[in-house]
Design a protein that fits this description.
By secondary structure, the chain is of the alpha+beta class. It has two domains: about 1-175, Cytochrome Bc1 Complex, Chain D, domain 2 (Orthogonal Bundle), CATH 1.10.760.10; about 185-475, YVTN repeat-like/Quinoprotein amine dehydrogenase (Methylamine Dehydrogenase, Chain H). It has eleven helices and 32 strands. It has a four-stranded antiparallel β-sheet, with no helix packed on it. A four-stranded antiparallel β-sheet has the order 8-9-10-11, with no helix packed on it. Strands 12-13-14-15 form a four-stranded antiparallel β-sheet, with no helix packed on it. Helix 2 (about 25-35) crosses helix 6. The longest helix is centred in the N-terminal third of the chain and has 15 residues, at about 110-120. The radius of gyration is 22 Å and the shape is globular. The structure holds heme C. Heme C binds next to helix 3, helix 4, helix 5, strand 1 and strand 2. This is Cytochrome c domain-containing protein. InterPro entries: Cyt_c-like_dom, Cyt_c-like_dom_sf, Host-pathogen_enzymatic-act, N2O_reductase_N, WD40/YVTN_repeat-like_dom_sf, YVTN_b-propeller_repeat. Pfam families: Cytochrom_D1, Cytochrome_CBB3. GO terms for molecular function: electron transfer activity; heme binding; metal ion binding.
Length: about 475
Amino acid sequence: MKPALLPWLAASLLASSAPVLAAPQANAEGAELYARHCADCHQPNGEGLSGIFPPHRGHVGALYAARGTPDGRHYLGQVVLNGLTGPITVKDETYDGNMPAWEGALPPGEIAAVLNFMLLELDPAGLPDDFRPYTAEDIADLSREDLDGQDVRRLRQGLDRFGEQATPTVAKAETPAEDTTPLPLESLFPQAIQVAVQNSGLVTVLPSGEAWPGIEGAHYDALSPDGTRLLVSGFKTGNVYLLDARSGDVEATLPVGGVAQGVKISPDGRLGLAALPDGNRVAVIDMEEGVLIDQIPVGPEPHNSVFSEDGDLAYVTLQGGGAIAVVDMRQLAKRDEIATPGLETPHNLDISADGRRLWIRDFVGRVGVLDLETEEMLKTLAVGNGHGGIDVIPGGAYVATGAIADSTISVIDARDLTLAAEVEVGSGPHGVRASRDGRYLYASITADDTVAVIDTRTLKVVARVPAGGAFPFWIAVPGNP
Ligand code: HEC
C-alpha cells in the first residue's frame, strides 16, 4: 500500500505546504520518515482509520497544547519513544490498539523530525503560539525516562481535556459480566483475513465466512500491499493462482515449473515470488500481467521469502542448506548467502519492522534471530514441535510461531529474546499472522479446522472460528505481509 500511495502523499504535501516553508530541510526529512514509518497505520494523509488507528490531522496540535504535569509536549515525545497501549478516545471514537515504540529503531534526531512534521504539517491550526519544534536533545532527554506503553497511557490520562474519557478498562474490570460476554466477531477482525484451506481447495474469508472455491491445494497465500490481489500456491499442483482479493475470482493459474511453497508479493505490488524447493529456485511473477517472468537459482530447498522494506532484496529460507539466500530483486539474481548456525532447516521467516533482524522458524522446533548487519545468529530458542509460520507482530513487542506437531503457539519477547508464553490453541497450529494493528493474532489450526484468535495483550485465546474446510494452512492479513 505504501509505495502506491506515495505520489499521493507528495501531491498532498505540495497542496498544503504553507506552514512548512519555514523549515524546508527538517520537514522534508520528517515527511519522508512519516511516509516510511507512520503512514501505514495513521495513513499518508494523517487521517487515520476510524476505530483502528487514530488520526493525527486536526488532533495532534491540541494534544501538544494540553496542560498537565507532565504536559502534552512531553507526552507526545514519550508516545513516539515508548509507544502507547490501552484505550484512548480521539474525536469521540475509541481506539484500543498498540502504538509501537520507536526508541532504538529511530535516532533522537529522526524522532524529533517526524514529530515536527506531524505537528506542523498535519495540525498547524491546533498548535499554540509558544510552539517550539523538538530537537534531538529534547528527545534524548525524554528517553532517559524508562516507560512502557501503559505508562505512556497514564501520562495521557494526566492531560487536561484528554484525561477523563479513557476509563473503559477500569469499567470492564469492575463488571465481571462483561468479561465473560463473547466479543462480537467483527471486533476481532479489524480487517478481513484470507485463510488458505488446503484439503478443501479454497480460500475462506473471515469473519464473513465467504468461501472462494476452485483453488486446488490452497497452501500458502499472500496479499498485495494494497489488498487487491491474492497469490496462492497449490500444494502438489505445480500451480500458483492469482486472485482478485475482493471477489475471489481466479485471474490466472500459473504453472511455475515445480511445486511451490511460500509466496510473497513485493512492497510495490509488482512482483510475486514463489519458492520452488524441487528446482532450488524462486519463480518471479509479474503481478500486472499475471505471467511468470523468471526463475532465480537460490540454493538447496527454498521454502519461503520475505522482502526488505524497500523491496530491493528478498531473503529466502534454504531449508536444505542451513542458510538464507539474499536475492537482489533489481537484478533478479542471488547476491549472497547467510548461514543460520543452530538452525539446520530454515523454513519460514519474517523481518523486524526496522529491517535489521530476520526471525526464522525451522522445520523441527526452533526459532533463530539473525542480525542482518553483522550476519550473526543472535540467539536460537526451542519452541513447539514441528514446522510452522512465524510473525513479527506489528508493534514490535512479540514474535509468534506455530508448531504443526504440537498444540501451542510460542510467543517470544522480541526485546530480550526469551519465551513469553506458550498459548494452547488446539491441534496442529501452522499459519500465524497478526492484525496490522498488532492487537489480535490469528493462527490456523490444521487438525481442528479452525482459526484461533489470540488477544496479544493478554496472550489468551478469545475465539475459535471455523475455517470453512479441512486443513487451514496459512493466513494472509492486509498490512502484515
Ligand atoms: C503499527 C501501527 C502504527 C504505526 C506504524 C504507528 N502508529 Fe501511532 N498509533 C497506533 C495506534 C494503534 C495508536 C493508538 C494506541 C492506543 O489505542 O492506545 C497510535 C497512537 C499514536 C499517537 C497518540 C495519539 C493520541 O491521541 O494520544 C501518536 C502521537 C502516534 N501514534 C504517532 C505515531 C508516529 C509519529 C508514528 C511513526 C513514527 C506512528 N505513530 C506509527 C498505531 C501505529
